[in-house]
Design brief:
seven-stranded mixed beta sheet; 12 helices; 12 strands; binds pyridoxal-5'-phosphate
């Protein structure tokens, strides 16, 4: 089986596995004052410093959370009350579900946020929280976050950035981006699942915790620290696959399959491509490719495994094709052989399924 679904979860890197195994032997809770507790605390604080340094925040402003979903929910919980919430049209459900009824920031055909709209909307001076992702999970399209941050700051709005797909694949620095808070998740970087960080800029308002608990993380997130997971997270900080190699493999897929590629004209992550096949449902494509030995995903599979039409592709103006696109996301350890095998399987699959769906259409047409 060839795994081409890195945006769901990157394969665990050996560095993370080794760090997790070592940390499993640590006795003690980092919150305890005795010797073993202080030893555990040192591992925790070293991990925090590595993560802070990589993402351009102060150590004290790294809040360990369970992953991207929690970091996004924490930001909206902390900064949303009393503010209008503006959410990019292609945001992940981690944001959308945490902000029901939010005002939607539209995107253009390439999937890029309409900053003209944002400028006009923020000009009314209403206190606002804007949520804009750095890289889209389905298309890889990058958002103009630096420009959005400048607009937000000029109008006194707060900006939260979901950098879950970008972290580990491009430079992500809170200071350089100019945002107030940012979400990252270890399992999208080759670290373990179940751990992530919510990173706060020095001028972010002091957040009310989503989970208060025992006051860990300076009272910003309660709960005993998941030290092995945190150590595994820190172990992948600074590791990055050769992005030009991934981009070349992605381009090879796009050229050889001849598929429609929503978002192709925008700046994108190197590892991600979205391939739409006219007239063939995304779930049928995923199943056929799975049977052929290639793990990819439908753009918008939810946790039940059901496939809906992708809200991302709909926001980009695609009609029926919003339900006919698969996502191929290359992991850090992808091989050329896997990519070439995928191309061959895709071409076979598209011929077979197209013929079948044409037959079906002929059978039902009057
Ligand atoms: N944000 C984006 C853009 C994602 O792609 C994902 C996961 O797919 C999440 C948030 C949720 O992250 P986690 O799985 O760590 O909760």
């Amino acid at each position: 089986m060839h795994y081409l679904d890195a945006n769901a979860s990157e394969p665990l890197r050996p560095e993370a596995k080794a760090a997790i195994a070592a940390a499993l032997d640590i006795v003690g809770n980092p919150s305890s004052v005795h010797g073993p507790g202080r030893g555990a605390r040192r591992v925790l604080e070293d991990a925090r410093a590595a993560i802070a340094g990589r993402f351009g925040v102060h150590d004290k402003d790294v809040v360990f959370v369970s992953g991207g979903t929690e970091a996004d929910a924490a930001a909206i919980h902390a900064f949303g009350p009393g503010r209008r919430i503006i959410v990019g049209a292609t945001e992940h459900d981690a944001i959308r579900a945490a902000a029901p009824g939010a005002t939607i920031l539209p995107v253009d055909k390439a999937g890029v946020a309409d900053l003209g709209w944002l400028r006009v909307t923020l000009a009314d001076g209403q206190p606002s929280l804007v949520c804009l992702m750095l890289a889209n999970n389905e298309t890889g399209v990058l958002q103009p976050v630096v420009e959005a941050a400048a607009l937000c700051r000029a109008h006194g709005a707060l900006l939260h950035v979901d950098a879950v797909q970008a972290a580990g694949r491009m430079d992500v620095d809170v200071r350089a981006l100019g945002c107030h808070s940012l979400a990252v998740s270890a399992h999208k970087m080759g670290g373990p699942p179940g751990i992530g960080a919510w990173l706060l800029a020095p001028d972010a308002p002091e957040p009310a915790p989503l989970i208060a608990g025992g006051g860990q993380e300076r009272g910003r997130r309660g709960g005993t620290h998941a030290l092995p997971a945190i150590a595994g997270f820190a172990a992948v900080i600074g590791l990055r696959a050769d992005q030009s190699r991934l981009a070349a493999l992605r381009d090879r897929i796009e050229a050889a399959t001849g598929a429609i590629v929503p978002g192709r004209e925008a700046p994108r992550l190197a590892n991600t491509t979205c391939l739409a096949l006219e007239g063939v449902r995304a779930d049928a494509q995923v199943i056929a490719l799975d049977l052929a030995g290639f793990a990819v995903s439908a753009g918008a599979a939810c946790s039940s495994g059901k496939v809906r039409e992708s809200h991302v592709l709909q926001a980009m103006g695609l009609g029926a094709q919003a339900g006919q696109a698969i996502r191929v996301s290359l992991p850090w350890n992808v091989t050329e052989a896997a990519v070439d095998g995928f191309i061959a399987a895709y071409i076979r699959m598209s011929e077979t399924l197209r013929v079948r769906s044409n037959r079906l259409l002929q059978a039902v047409s009057p």
